[in-house]
Amino acid sequence: MVSVEELMGQVIDSEMEVISKELSKALEEALNLVKQKRDSVERTYTAKMQEMVTKAKEEIEGERARLDIEVKRAVLGEKNYWLNKVYEGTIKSLGTVKNSQGYKQGLESVLKRELRDGSIVYCSEDEVDQVQKMIKGLKAKAEVRSDPKIMGGVKIQYSDVGLVRDYSLNLILDQVFESLKPKIAEILFGEM
Fold it and tell me: What does the record list as coiled-coil region(s)?
């Protein structure tokens, strides 16, 4: 027969085994619950961190784009400044061109070809006398007026048909300078 103590030992062992199994299950469930919560928190904060990193990248890219635009504007401003300096230098050297024999012959050729009686010829203030002499030499009847906006050359107005032909140095210089701007920029800045 089994003694009470042995019986108690068996019951205690059996209950301990049941309790141990239950505690193992409870521990496993608790660990799973902790793991799930940890994974959930990790996913949440990982998403938040990714969002913050993405936002920071976008801000950096936006700032980079803004700075690129500012740099391009500054460079363009400098380029335009120096191109304008070249243009101003060209305008200052027009006196040499206007005193040349080729210029005078070209001006006379334009007047010979385009002038009609009754026309009005506009020219720079310093060329009025010269243009009047040319018109007299051509034996044409035309009025000569000075135009302070004209640097050189002439504009011929045909009043009878309402037409003005522009042979001024202003127009020629603007057209030539505009077409040569890329070459001038290449010379000044090493660009095409």
Answer: none
Residue 171's CATH number:
3.30.2320.30
Segment 184-192 shows an average pLDDT of 75
Greatest CA span in the chain, whole angstroms?
A: 159
Q: Where are the alpha helices (DSSP H) in 138-190?
A: 169-189
Please list, in sequence order, all residues whose beta carbon lies within 8 angstroms of the beta carbon of residue 144, skipping any fewer than 6 positions away: 120, 121, 123, 128, 131, 132, 135
Looking up tokens 């107005």, which residue turns up?
Answer: 157
CA 147 to chain centre: 37
Instruction: Look at the chain and report how many structural domains it folds into.
Output: 1
Give the model confidence (pLDDT) of 27-49 as tens digits: 999 999 999 999 999 999 999 99
154, 107 Cβ separation under 8 angstroms:
yes
Contacts 24+ apart (CB under 8 A), 100-103: 103/152
Spatial CA neighbour of 121 closest among 138, 149, 142: 142
Q: What is the DSSP letter of 114?
A: H
